[in-house]
Amino acid sequence: MIYVLNTLIIPVDFEIKEKYSIHLEKIDIEKAREMLSEKEFISAIGHEATAKLLSELLGISIPYNRIAIKLKPGDIGIHFFLKERLPEGKILSEEELRKIEYDLILSKVK
């Protein structure tokens, strides 16, 4: 399964496996769009402004969906990763979010 996340944290399921290898790779908007267009995915984007911005950037509806997930072997994550640490408790508006640099990171769980 492919998951879209608004953090670089990689939540794995230690109930089914005690050791994981994770491959991380920086990707561009086009690669993320291609991957999400071709396969079913689950959004775990827990901030509404981030979901709106990603939907616009990717041209694909990325729902706001504040859920907890656990990645399993074979799962893929597409992570929206801000290059700046926000103050504790700070929730950004979509306009504020647009001003911060970000990376898209692909994670593959093995």
How would you describe what is shown here?
By secondary structure, the protein is of the alpha/beta class. The protein has a single domain, classed as Rossmann fold (3-Layer(aba) Sandwich). The chain is 24% helix and 26% strand. It is built from three helices and five strands; from the N terminus they run ββαβαβαβ. It has a five-stranded mixed sheet, with helices on one face. The radius of gyration is 14 Å and the shape is globular. It starts with a strand and ends with a strand.
In short:
The chain has 110 residues and is an alpha/beta fold. The protein has one domain: Uncharacterised protein PF08960, DUF1874 (Rossmann fold, 3-Layer(aba) Sandwich), CATH 3.40.50.
Uncertain segments are none
What CATH calls the topology is Rossmann fold
Q: Strand content of the residues, in percent?
A: 25-35%
CATH first level: Alpha Beta
| Helix-strand topology string | EEHEHEHE
Mind telling me the CATH superfamily name?
Uncharacterised protein PF08960, DUF1874
Structural class based on helices, strands and sheet pairing: alpha/beta
**N-to-C CA distance:** 13 Å
Number of discrete helical segments: 3
Biggest sheet: strands side by side, in what order? Answer: 2-5-4-1-3
For the record, the count of structural domains works out to 1
CATH architecture: 3-Layer(aba) Sandwich
How is the main sheet built? 5 strands, mixed
Radius of gyration: 14 Å
DSSP helix fraction: 10-25%
The count of β-strands is: 5
Residue-averaged pLDDT: 92
The dominant shape is globular
